[in-house]
Specification:
Elements (H helix, E strand, L loop, with lengths): L5 E4 L3 E6 L4 E7 L20 E2 L10 E4 L2 E4 L12 E6 L2 E7 L2 H6 L5 E9 L2 E9 L6 E3 L1 E3 L2 E3 L12 E4 L30 E3 L10 E3 L6 E5 L5 E5 L5 E5 L6 E8 L18 E3 L4 E11 L1
Antiparallel strand pairs: 1-2, 2-3, 4-12, 5-6, 7-8, 8-9, 9-10, 10-22, 11-21, 12-20, 13-20, 14-15, 14-17, 16-19, 17-18, 18-22, 19-20
Length: 293
């Protein structure tokens, strides 16, 4: 649902964010070039949802706490929630979501999720902060899900786009089951050669490509002769890549957490990949995007 979008700007870029989900909808330069998805509903109408308090799917879409199952949709509820604007300036804005009777009915924990957006020249800086104001440990996952234009502005061929990782990525990748969204036990050979991953729609015929233990915390996305994006995610050890094949976007998704492994049937707090945040503590997740026009 599109509320009135909040706009921030630097001397080089402008960004528009929807308070529903605190979702980045647009990242443009001063010449009008758009670096985000066109959100064509024929493929996927999302833009950049925030994934909280889970990443991916739970078995049966159920979150179990103290033996009680709570209904929880894929990627959690934050992406459909109304965030409050709590700070705003011409080049920055902060949004906040806190627990309520509605969230506690499905996720029985006290929390505050804040997300900062700031533009500095050609760089967009985001930072999500998960606070535990309660008296009990807070189990959660968090993920970014931005969909960048593919091809990027600048006229480079779509087929020439690639990711160049900070470090070599020889480790295996994982997939999810199409019917349940659960993490399959089988590993696949890395599609990365050294540090380079040429992008092709065929990569996504079997759904997302997932690294549950990524060496890199940064990468470059782009193609020779066109724009590129330098993307840094220093606080997230996992990464998903996804598109509906043929779409005009590529989702580059830094995660802390992933879908339930196939066969997992335990308490939510024992799910692999979770953060268990002590009472009174804060955990932050940064994501920056430097536009090279």
């Amino acid at each position: 649902m599109a509320q009135d979008l909040v706009e921030i700007a630097s001397d080089s870029l402008s960004a528009r964010i929807n308070p529903t989900g605190a979702e980045l909808w647009s990242l443009c330069d001063t010449h009008g070039a758009q670096y985000m998805t066109d959100a064509d509903p024929a493929f996927w109408g999302g833009h950049a949802p925030l994934l909280f308090p889970i990443v991916g799917s739970l078995a049966g879409d159920r979150l179990r706490v103290d033996g009680i199952d709570h209904a929880m949709p894929r990627h959690g509820f934050a992406r459909h929630s109304a965030f409050d604007v709590v700070e705003q300036a011409p080049d920055r804005v902060r949004f906040r979501l806190t627990d309520s009777a509605d969230t506690r009915a499905v996720y029985p924990f006290a929390f505050a999720l804040e997300i900062d957006f700031r533009l500095d020249g050609w760089r967009l800086v985001m930072a999500a902060h998960v606070h535990n104001p309660g008296a009990e440990p807070l189990p959660f996952s968090f993920g970014y899900h931005p969909a960048f234009a593919w091809p990027l502005p600048g006229g480079a061929d779509k087929a020439a786009h690639r990711l160049t990782f900070e470090w070599p990525e020889p480790g295996p990748v994982r997939r999810v089951a199409r019917d349940t969204g659960l993490l399959l036990p089988e590993a696949e050979a890395s599609p990365v050669t050294g540090r380079d991953l040429p992008l092709d729609a065929d990569l996504f015929r079997a759904d997302a490509v997932i690294w549950t233990d990524l060496a890199s915390r940064a990468l470059r996305y782009g193609a020779p002769g066109g724009a590129s994006l330098d993307i840094a995610f220093p606080d997230t050890p996992m990464l998903g890549l996804w598109q509906v094949p043929g779409g005009h976007y590529i989702c580059i998704e830094p995660w802390q957490g992933h879908a339930d492994p196939q066969g997992f049937d335990g308490e939510f707090a024992t799910k692999p990949g979770l953060v268990i945040l002590p009472p009174g503590a804060v955990r932050s997740f940064r994501l920056s995007v430097l536009v090279n026009p």
